Amino acid sequence: MNHILLLIRPRLQGLMNAIKRSSRKERRFRIILIMGLGIVFWTVLFAIFYRILSYFKRVEGFGDVLALKLLSMVLVTFFALLIFSGVITLVAKLYLSRDLPLVHTLPVLPGRVFLARFSESLFDSSWMVALYSLPIFMSYGIIYQAGFSFYLACGATLVLLSLTAVALSAVLVLIMAVILPAQRIRSMAFFLGALVLILLVLTIRLIRPEQLVDPEVFSSLAQYLRSLESPGNPFLPTTWAYDLLKGTLIISQNAPLNLGLLLSFSGSLLFGAYRLAERFYFLGYSQAQSGPVSHATGSGRKRPGLERFFSGVTRALVLKEIRTFRRDQTQWPQLLLIFALVFIYVYNFSVLPLESIPWRATYLKNLVSFLNIGLAGFVLSALAARFVYPAVSMEGAAFWLIQAAPLKIRDFLMVKFLFYCLPFVILGEALIILTNLILEVTPFVMVLSTLTVALMVPGIVSLALALGAAYPDFRAENPAQATTSIGGLIFMVLSAAFIILVIVLEAGPAYQVFLADIAGRQLSTLSLLGIIVSFGAVIVLSFLAVALPLRYGTRRLAARMGQK
């Protein structure tokens, strides 16, 4: 333990030094801001789940089944996110960190180095998931008037599920680091991304969310209820966690058994990972130090196509962005995952049994399409947090070249904005158009949703890029480390607020126009005026969401560089 604490101490000392270097006013502002944003986020998430569970609780018999099914979905989703986050974090911590050459010169066994890095990865990959889950568990405890044992079970579940997921990720990373060729350690993310993709698809299929809205596939209501109440796979840790929480929430049975299963499995998995690290970690790390052999390919040639639109330093920046993205092997498996998520996203709309629900099918389809605007916006915000927000921080130590170049910070950020904005607009439009075609919406809803996404996406990209420039971390060793900062938190909150505000502004006018279109009647002058004002406000808001963040990010980054 002394060796492990010694290896973790630089991380803690660096954090303390960063706090001491900050001015007192800045430190106070950050604390107040983080606490304020955290309180707002917790309150909103708690209110949503509290309202849903209150509605379920009022439904006799069937409500408890739905509430428990929702709890099972939450646990499976969190476990999948923990595995994905653990894989990404462990690859960086175990093989790509800049301080590893110094660490491995110390008289410390590789297994203990692994445990120290595992401890850091466990915290880095699980703290956000734990933070998001607390309001959910609190809403369950309040609605069902659970005792203190339920909250203890929630804490134990979060710790043990996180430990299990990250230990499983560690086993996967250690094995793949030895199997892959020495010159291709960075391409390990491709194989890990493919495995995570398979895990994600299996997770969606295990949840089977379409059962909650398609009772016609069952011969009777009793069979439908039995299907929802059926236990999950008894060999999955999420099933043990679900049974543990269920045993302390509603049915007091088998809680100690499930706690013991979680504890023994996570401990055994961690011990197995430690034994693997003793045998194979240093071998994989040694292979990772052999870089790929590069050959000149005439990359210095000019591209006539770019000269039509850019010149001078701007063209050089565009070329740099293209080549950096193309040569970074860790980006390609993540693109594969994005395409997989798009497929699953669209597929979920195709299996919705909207025709079987006893409402007007046309009304329901268009309502789902309108709500899909916000859902697509949240998906794009998550992708922007991963790709756009770290764009400035990932310049790293080479950022001095930008400082020394005859280039304005505004132009530097504008190039990055244009580089990311177009692909995000194309992706957003693809999500909206494909789902609208599946739902067979009216022409008005199709036009409204496509235009709204085209207006929202530049604002989301601008917020991500500007806050990444305002709070850069040039020492970040991977994009995930740069994203999990105060700037990343502010971006997610502001992006969510921006999307919700756009949806709220458009909801009333869109409803009026849709009903008038279905009924074949004309809108009154007052209604037309209100619609024009609402849609005009959305246009102005979208413009401000692009201009103001970029100006703020430019000013903060320029001040950091000593420019005016």
The amount of beta strand, in percent, is under 5%
Number of E-state strands: 0
Query: Helices and strands: which structural class?
Result: mainly alpha
Distance between the termini: 50 Å
Residue share in helix: over 70%
Q: Which spans of ≥5 residues are poorly predicted at pLDDT below 50?
A: 293-300
Major sheet details: none
Shape, please? Answer: globular
Quote the average pLDDT.
76
- Radius of gyration over C-alpha positions, nearest whole angstrom: 26 Å
Number of helices: 20
Q: What is the element string, with H for helices and E for strands?
A: HHHHHHHHHHHHHHHHHHHH
Short description:
This protein has 564 residues and is mainly alpha-helical. 79% of the residues lie in helices and 0% in strands.
Describe what you observe in this structure:
The protein is mainly alpha-helical. The protein has 20 helices and no strands. The longest helix is centred in the last third of the chain and has 37 residues, at 525-561. The radius of gyration is 26 Å and the shape is globular. Residues 293-300 have low confidence and may be disordered.
